[in-house]
Amino acid sequence: MAITHLKSEPTDAPAAIGHNRPPVDILAKSEFDEQIDQHEGLRKRIVDLVGAADRAQATSEETMGRCGQTVIQIRACMKKIEDAHTTSKAPYLEGGRVIDKAKKELMGPLEEAKAKIEGKQQSYLRAQAKADQERREKQAAEERRIQEENDRIQREHEEAVRKAQEEAEAAGKPVEEVAPPEPVYIAPPPPPKPIERGIIRGAEGAAISGKKVWKSQITDYTQAFAMVSSNPKVREAMDSAIAAVVRAGVREIAGVRIWEDVGVSNR
Question: What is the pLDDT of residues 186-205, one digit of tens each?
Fold first, then answer.
């Protein structure tokens, strides 16, 4: 059964510019292939040189020379590929830069506006958090004050009991007749009601809530490094930095093995 409900109605409207242009990935590959094919026989030359690498031998000065010539030919092919890559990619890079600039012109003011508003929201939430903390500290201080006062009352009572016992023993009377009354302690304050910061909802449906975030600032790089020294990205950055200073001429670094090796130069 034929599907007829997707059939487009005829229209006299002009077609949009570029409506029949191939997808960008196909177009880009086609342009790269076109640049490569401008060098007649390059593709076959690549295959031949790759095969030559398997057959190559470096067992004498003569064979070393032939290897050098092969490497030079490989570099020549690689240069042509690099040139084709640069030429075919240039329009897309320029187009990308134009699009990036246009995006930045639109996004930049919006990002600044967003950050400005969120900064004001953050100030409000910080003020709330500060008020909550001050409330908790005030409650804790009051609890400490009452505890200290009750401890003082208890000490005074114990001292009074001791004196009463001494006086009773001196007068030959029962202790109960001279014992001071039980002290009246200060009742502790009622526990504070839990602070609940719910979701704030805007009139048009926006939902705003605060969350705890942890931030950091390195104050001692040597000590902080011990915590992240096993991180693969940190080690990769270290490898790169050490290699750079070794190339620059440093020959002794604690914890690093540095040795001389042989490199190959084919000119």
Answer: 988 887 777 777 788 887 78
